[in-house]
Design brief:
The complex is a heterodimer of chains A (about 190) and B (about 260).
Chain A: H1 7-34, H2 51-60, H3 65-79, H4 86-105, H5 113-135, H6 142-172, H7 177-180, H8 185-192
Helix pairs in contact in A: 1-2, 1-3, 2-3, 2-6, 3-4, 4-5, 5-6
Chain B: H1 15-30, H2 35-52, H3 57-81, E1 87-91, E2 94-97, H4 98-124, H5 127-137, H6 142-153, H7 155-171, H8 180-211, H9 230-252
Antiparallel strand pairs in B: 1-2
The chains are: A mainly alpha (about 190), B mainly alpha (about 260).
């Protein structure tokens, strides 16, 4: 069985990612209008920016898709003129990489809500590493920093983990995922009967 | 909406070179901890955007408004809750110190310079040229480049579909309700059709491309040929001068009496 990405996989991943790129762009204003509320409430919605990786992986279920989707979504957001500019591109690369590493750790064999949530946490960790270099976050008061980290991780599990899982589950009912997923063992068994 | 602009030398820079130079600038700025230097760099970047982007001043100014909000929101947490020794204000959880104030300001300028470079790139680069250039200059696999270009072409269709769904709901009298359940319903009724249609369309395009013998081989011909020109040199020189002059001015005329903003 050839596990590499075919043109169909790449094109579908990128189209999904560009859709998310637009969502990412629209999410920006929401994020910075919530931010002045203080106490890092904004971090609860940060997880939206990790969603392309997990959703694309759940739909296509192949190695490399999570990384490609996150990078493509970030590029889409960058090209339409993100308020954060270049930042989104590099954050996208790191977030995608960390999500991909989590899926790799499970050898691309599990597609349940736990693994997806772990991938979301992975992306959150990636973004926190970037923020460490960019935002001097270690210089925040300790209670404030804990709030920041806690909210970001909770938010990413809820949005990029749980919500992404149920979104794809709903999408499966339309039958569209059968177009792009590789044939599973069950499909081959069904042919033998 | 009028979206015309003049082509300036910034538009003629090789897109790959522009992208990679800006990424290098990004990484460089992460290592600038002197607030005076960073402010000078930010002015250099803003000058590039305002004078040479070729877009009307009014449009650029409008696009700069969100930057101000980001500036304030990025700096405020650090100013209000950052570590520091020289206390200015202490009020409940809020603890503003001299150190945290300058660090917050530094973060604000950092966000501003990233955003300025990003907007400059977005306003002066055609995505098609960028992907053609990436295929030719850094040998990006055509499968990815063409997928991207096809994907970008689908954005207007996605928007149209979004409007269709909204109108269809209106026509059928779907009531706008409030609350969590209504929110969930709304998300679901938009995202599922939009996603499934996009996937179907992408799948059809891929099949069509392969039927027309698109193989994704790197050894192929290109309709647009992109190379390097004098403009690339001017761009790199501008950034080089900006860094050096910015440093010099920050030493001779420092705006704020602080050096390294780290705690």
């Amino acid at each position: 069985m050839n596990r590499g990405l075919k043109l169909t996989d790449i094109l579908v991943t990128i189209v999904i990612a560009i859709g998310f790129g637009i969502v990412y762009k629209l999410w920006g204003p929401l994020y910075y209008f919530v931010k002045p509320l203080g106490l890092h409430i904004d971090q609860l919605i940060y997880g939206m920016w990790f969603m392309a990786a997990t959703v694309a992986y759940l739909i296509i279920r192949k190695p490399g898709v999570a990384f490609l989707a996150e990078v493509a979504a970030a590029s889409g957001e960058f090209l339409v003129g993100s308020e954060w500019g270049l930042e989104v591109l590099l954050f996208g690369v790191v977030q995608g990489l960390f999500a991909e590493l989590v899926f790799m750790a499970f050898r691309y064999k599990r597609f349940d809500v736990t693994v997806v949530s772990l991938a979301a946490i992975g992306s959150a960790v990636g973004s926190i590493i970037m923020d460490y270099y960019k935002g001097y976050i270690e210089d925040l008061a300790l209670w404030n920093l804990s709030l920041f980290l806690g909210f970001r991780i909770i938010g990413s599990i809820l949005i990029a983990g749980v919500a992404a899982y149920y979104l794809v589950k709903a999408l499966e009912k339309t039958g569209v995922t059968n177009l792009v997923r590789p044939a599973s063992k069950q499909d081959y068994d069904a042919l033998d009967q | 909406m009028d979206l015309n602009f003049n082509e300036t030398w910034l538009h003629k820079i090789n897109p790959t070179l522009k992208l990679f130079t800006m990424i290098l600038m990004f990484i460089f700025v992460l290592f600038v901890h002197q607030i005076n230097w960073l402010i000078n760099l930010t002015f250099g970047a803003l000058l590039l955007l305002l004078v040479f982007s070729g877009h009307p001043k009014k449009r650029v100014s409008l696009l700069l408004i969100p930057f101000l909000i980001i500036f304030i929101s990025t700096s405020s947490s650090m100013i209000l809750f950052g570590k520091g020794d020289t206390t200015w204000v202490k009020w409940g959880l809020v603890h503003i110190t001299e150190e945290s104030f300058y660090r917050g300001l530094h973060l604000g300028f950092r966000a501003l310079i990233f955003a300025t470079f990003g907007l400059t790139f977005a306003l002066t680069t055609r995505p098609v040229n960028l992907f053609y250039s990436l295929m030719q200059q850094v040998k990006l696999n055509p499968k990815y480049a063409y997928s991207f270009m096809a994907g970008l072409r689908l954005i207007p269709i996605m928007i149209e579909e979004f409007l269709t769904i909204r109108n269809a709901m209106k026509v059928r009298g779907v009531e706008q309700e409030r609350g969590l359940q209504a929110f969930y319903f709304k998300i679901k009724s938009y995202s599922i059709p939009l996603l499934s249609q996009s996937i179907r369309r992408a799948h059809r395009i891929a099949v069509a491309m392969e039927a027309k013998r698109f193989t994704g081989e790197r050894d192929r011909t290109y309709y647009y040929k992109l190379g390097f020109s004098l403009n690339d040199g001017i761009f790199v020189a501008y950034l080089g001068v900006m860094i050096l002059l910015g440093y010099y001015l920050s030493v001779v005329w420092p705006l704020f009496p602080v050096g390294d903003v780290r705690y």
